[in-house]
Amino acid sequence: MIDMITINIPCMKRILLLNVYCTLILLSQSFVLFSQQDQGWKADPATVEKLSKSQPDINYFEERVPQYKLPEILINSKGSKIQSSGEWEQNRRQEILQLFRENVYGRTPSTPYAKSYRVVNEDKSAIGGAATLKQVEILISSGGKELTIHLTLFVPNNAPHPVPAFLLINNRDPKNTDPTRQVRSEFWPVEEVIARGYAISVFYNDDVDPDNFDDFRNGIHGILDRGERKDDSWGTLAAWAWGASRCMDYFETDSDIDCRKVAVVGHSRGGKTALWAAAEDSRFAMAVGNESGCGGAALARRRYGETVARINKGFPHWFCTNYRKWNNNEDAMPVDMHMLISLIAPRAVYITSADQDLWADPKGSYLLLFNSTPVYRLYYPGMSLPVQMPPMNTPVVGGKTAYHVRDGVHNLLLKDWNWFMDFSDKVLK
Ligand code: GTR
Question: What one-character-per-residue DSSP string does 109-143 give?
Answer without folding.
Answer: P----EEEEEEEEEEEEEGGGTEEEEEEEEEEEET
